[in-house]
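Let's see one such:

===
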Amino acid sequence: MATKELTEITIEQAIKDNDIVLVDFWAEWCGPCKRFGPVFEASSDANPEVLHAKVDTEAEQGLAGDLGITSIPTLMAFREGILVFNQAGALPAPALDQVLTAVRALDMTEVRAQIAAQAVEPTA
């Protein structure tokens, strides 16, 4: 499965419509982004049930700013609409595989419970 290009208009629906979404934030001028690109594409081919998407931070500066992207490449993983992984830096293939394995293994009931508990904790 080829990667899908996302924009400020399409990202929300893509995250809602897919169980697991990996998003690579990149730019054409970024050397590490270019090195990570083939790794990300290979993961997309090997894991067709996972939406692999890319956001061009030059074309989508507003979206990158809204999501707090300060360094590229940055990889974000969403599961059931929830951001569960966010890390800057190009990952080698084995590390990307580990991220995907960990995202698949998450107990989303527990993740939602943790989010709910954080929402009601008083701030100090």
